[in-house]
Design goal:
By secondary structure, this protein is α/β, with parallel strands linked by helices. Helices cover 36% and strands 23% of the residues. The strands form two sheets. A nine-stranded mixed sheet has the order 3-2-1-4-7-9-8-10-11, with helices on both faces. The protein has a two-stranded parallel sheet with strand order 5-6. Helix 2 runs parallel beside helix 3 (58-64), helix 6 runs antiparallel to helix 8 (243-261) and helix 8 runs antiparallel to helix 9.
Length: 297
């Protein structure tokens, strides 16, 4: 399997510390999800961090640091065993349990999740990666089921999984967007499979998926690119109510700019938007690295 320079560097960093990713998530997903979750944890009260679908456990461990206790849930026995080994390697106070996402109750300082989000048309799906429908179902269920147990969520999804619907669901749960990282990522072989790609193209036509594909006249084998989206949602105060429509409009403009004209156009849309202080965009292409001029609060 070939990986780009960024993936290889990220993977080496984890392996050098005795940690293992397993087959549960890519290095890019792990890196951005762990970083944004840790950023959010530092802004919350000390307590228990709950990770729904913990996979390798690396983001859970990183988010907890030395100040929080962590609890990771996953349906996979292999994932829970791997996460336990990683926690032992880091000597962190984190527990991992094999169970369903929605079998936990309590009061949490932060709930984080990188659940399945690839849209699927068929009933026979890979539950570790796919969700029937537009890809937003699990994330909306998490917001609906756990909203009364925390004031802060970090959710990792992609521009192919009806992201605007996820943001709307967060607003309906009285949450505001506190911070968002956008990272460009090519479709993997799983997402690029003909039957999945055909459905994603239908979703793009229906404006529930946003991704950049080959332009007219280009090689049909050209890669498709999506945006990984890692969002920190925090409890909304009454003073933030008026911001909701503006944030949604700005995010939609950024996604459409990316889909129609590429990452430079999306960056320009971000720089001129009202969300430029809470959104960061990252692009890694081999040795080329671009960061938007935006800075988080």
């Amino acid at each position: 399997m070939s990986v780009d320079v960024t993936s290889a560097a990220t993977l080496r960093r984890y392996l050098s510390r005795g940690l293992r990713l397993g087959a549960f998530v890519s290095p890019e997903d792990t890196d951005v999800f762990a970083r944004v979750s840790r950023r959010a944890a530092l802004r919350t009260r000390v307590g228990v961090i709950l990770d729904l679908g913990c996979g390798s456990g690396i983001p859970t461990i990183h988010a907890c640091g030395r100040s929080h206790f962590g609890l990771g849930l996953d349906l996979s026995v292999e994932a829970v065993d791997l996460a336990g080994c990683n926690a032992a390697a880091e000597r962190r106070d984190v527990a991992f349990v094999q169970t369903d996402f929605f079998q936990c109750k309590g009061n949490f300082s932060l709930i984080m999740s990188n659940p399945p989000y690839i849209p699927a048309r068929t009933e026979e799906i890979d539950i570790s990666l796919e969700v029937q429908g537009d890809g937003s179902a699990v994330l909306k269920n998490i917001l609906g089921s756990y909203r009364g147990m925390t004031q802060d969520f970090v959710l990792h999804f992609a521009s192919i999984s009806n992201p605007l619907e996820i943001f709307r669901a967060a607003y309906e749960s009285d949450l505001k967007l506190a911070y968002l990282e956008l990272t460009i990522a090519p479709f993997g072989s799983y997402t690029s499979a003909p039957e999945r790609l055909a459905y994603l193209l239908e979703c793009r036509e229906a404006k529930t998926a946003f991704f950049r594909g080959p332009t007219v006249g280009s090689d049909a084998s050209s890669k498709y690119d999506q945006l990984l989206m890692t969002a920190h949602f925090s409890e909304m105060r009454s003073s933030h109510q008026a911001e909701r429509s503006t944030v949604l409009e700005n995010l939609e403009e950024i996604l459409l700019s990316f889909q129609s004209h590429g990452i430079n156009s999306a960056a320009a849309a971000l720089r001129s938007s009202a969300v430029k202080q809470i959104v960061k965009m990252r692009v890694f292409r081999g040795s080329h690295s671009f960061k938007s001029s935006s800075r988080p609060r």
